[in-house]
Amino acid sequence: MRLLRLIKIAWVIQRFGLDEFILGHERFRWLRGLVRFLMFWRRLDTPRAVRLRLAMEALGPIFVKFGQVLSTRRDLLPTDIADELAKLQDQVPPFASPQVEKILSRTYPQGYRQVFREFDLKPVASASVAQVHLAVLHDGTEAAVKVLRPGIEAVIANDLALLHVAAGLVEMLWAEGKRLKPRQVVAEFERHLHDELDLMREAANCSQLRRNFEHSPLLRVPEVYWDYCSSEVMVMERMRGIPISQVDKLKAQGIDIPLLARAGVEIFFTQVFRDGFFHADMHPGNIFVGEDGRYIALDFGIMGTLTDVDKNYLAQNFIAFFRRDYKRVAQAHVEAGWVPKDTRVEDFEAAIRTVCEPIFARPLKEISFGKLLVRLFQVARRFNVEVQPQLVLLQKTLLNIEGLGRQLDPDLDLWKTAKPFLERWMNEQVGLQAFFRHLREESTRWPALLPQLPRLAHRTLAQAADPPATAQLAQLLREQKRQTRLLKWLVVLLTALLGLQLALVVL
Question: Matching InterPro entries, A to Z (predicted)?
Fold first, then answer.
């Protein structure tokens, strides 16, 4: 199956003439004549951008998702290609109505007409993994119904198998393969793709994000109608709005575009640092803007999560970066183990400063992210910076957010917009306010912990009373005595904290 899939990929590449993108480089100029001779039968009258989009559609979901990410990077792509790839966001060819009815009949044995008073078999949006239909429930509630593409699991499984093979070859044959951790990156990508194939999981993601942003003045998330959901069908509240990519319509609606761009940055950082749970597929096809100017999030198949360790590390790096404290950025990388321990912090700091200093105080339209990425890769290679697979989705999402910001407001100062939010968030994580919050969070464990302290103290004292047989045991005894003293103080401290917590509750 893998060999057949590889043959299909090669066939699609030559069928749509995608070799043109490689032969366009001067380094491969000598191959152009040979390719034209071998492919004399091929007629390429269709524009290159259309051929690229059609090839990605023919190759399936993983390639479509790659095209979706590229479509937001208008600073890196020619206009014709970016415009055409934007159609991959919600204009992938739909699957046939009989297949839709078959899936609905499997989901609702009583018949889908018994569930929906109205159901439009013509989809309003079609993407790589599923398509969306409009419907009306019998109580008159308008709904959007997402239906999974039939047979999509097998296609994705084959592509993932090829990615695993490619990752293994990269790691084995390329000197820097291990530093880039290609196998872990593919495994992380695979985990999220499998999650996207279960619409019950997507419904749960949607419900969680809606709860996180309940009563938010910035973001709306649809309600899930759980009684009608399954692994192949998701039914949710119908949301009305203007696609965020249609800037002219937004302006005609009276939407403040610069304000909208700044709100998008705040929504992103709120998801990442406040909740550690973020929408990781934020291309323009998944984001609308309502009449009230609030964002409307759609498609929750791919969500990212971060641990407290990841959040704190990232926040420290971002804040140090915004303050131009490059030494702190370098130190944070060393402390986290992302670069070797013997790395000279001063050299790493100088390299980061060289890359980052030229882009500060500039609007997005004046920043060449293509050049910036090349220079960042050079620094990463020089200092053996290890790729962090758990942050791959975050990096992808940050690229999407920056691309959206560029479309909305090229004059957006990303650094100035994000810095106050991150500083406020960090202030909430340290100091007296954070201490009392953690105290309240841990107080529920104290009733179970306190009764165990005498037993733990007795066990420690009993162990310390045994005569040591060797010098090593004598050292162990001294360490145990020290722990005993610490344990006594811990009892006193916990008792005091418990009293303080009780006082706070009474007050």
Answer: ABC1_dom, Kinase-like_dom_sf, UbiB, UbiB_bact, UbiB_kinase
The set of residues, in sequence order, having a beta carbon less than 8 Å from that of 447 and lying 6+ positions away, is none
Query: pTM (2 decimals)?
Result: 0.69
Contact 89, 71 (CB under 8 A): yes
Cβ atoms within 10 Å, residue 54: 16
- Alpha carbon distance, N-terminus to C-terminus of the chain: 68
Report the catalytic residues: 281
Q: Is 390 exposed, middle or buried (0-12, 13-18, 19+ CB in 10 A)?
A: middle
CA separation (Å) from 170 to 167, 180, 264?
A: 5, 9, 36
User: How far apart are the C-alpha atoms of 24 and 12, rounded to whole Å?
Assistant: 18
Q: What integer is the mean pLDDT of 3-29?
A: 68
Of 306, 302, 293, 220, the residue nearest 262 (C-alpha): 293
Is the pLDDT score of 158 beyond 90? Answer: no
Residue 462, burial from CB neighbour count under 10 angstroms (0-12, 13-18, 19+) = exposed
Average pLDDT over residues 405-428: 77
Per-residue pLDDT tens for 260-299? 988 988 898 889 888 889 888 777 778 999 999 999 999 8
Give CA–CA dist 404/250, Å, rounded. Answer: 14
DSSP state of 467: P
Residue 250 identity: L
Nearest alpha carbon to residue 284 among 81, 82, 78, 452: 82
Contacts (Cβ under 8 Å, ≥6 apart) of 83: 49
Question: Within 10 A of 125 (CB to CB), how many other CB atoms are there?
Answer: 21
Kindly list the distances between the CA atom of residue 85 and the CA atoms of 76, 78, 108, in Å, as whole numbers in the listed order: 13, 11, 36
Element (H, E) at 143: strand 142-148
Tokens of 46: 């269709």
